[in-house]
Design a protein that fits this description.
Elements (H helix, E strand, L loop, with lengths): L1 H145 L1
Length: about 150
């Protein structure tokens, strides 16, 4: 029994300390850990919100970048198409100019051939006329020299 009395006395002596520790626990829980837990929860909530906003902003930036790249690609394609059309136009114009120059040259060559053929015919006719007279002159000279 003596042990039971000692235990009861020890328990009675420890009871105020246990009550004080329990009250201190309740005080700390309500005055320190409660606000701290709420602040940490609010911080986590804000951090998560900021992270989601950052992800949304990053996704929007990626979409804008993709749209910009697509618009840039279309603009380049249009520019190259315009350049190709202008190049084809210049080449077509150059080819037309070359065809025209060849046609004029062919016409000039044909006209020159006709003129030369005309001159040749005139020269032959002149030679033919001159040949008969020359033949007569030679014949007369031979006949005069033989007499």
């Amino acid at each position: 029994m003596q042990i039971a009395d000692q235990l009861r006395e020890l328990f009675l002596q420890a009871l105020p300390v246990v009550v004080l520790v329990f009250l201190f626990y309740l005080f700390l829980k309500s005055q320190f850990f409660g606000p701290l837990t709420r602040a940490m929860a609010e911080r986590a909530k804000r951090t998560e919100g900021a992270r989601k906003e950052a992800e949304a902003a990053q996704a929007a930036a990626q979409e804008k970048t993709r749209a910009y790249q697509e618009a840039l690609r279309k603009a380049r394609a249009e520019m190259y198409a315009e350049l190709e059309a202008a190049r084809r136009g210049v080449l077509d114009q150059r080819a037309a100019t070359v065809r025209e120059a060849r046609a004029r040259a062919s016409e000039q060559v044909a006209a020159a051939k006709q003129r030369i053929a005309g001159e040749q015919a005139a020269a032959r006719a002149e030679l033919d006329r001159g040949l008969a007279a020359l033949g007569e002159n030679i014949s007369e000279a031979i006949l005069k020299g033989a007499r």
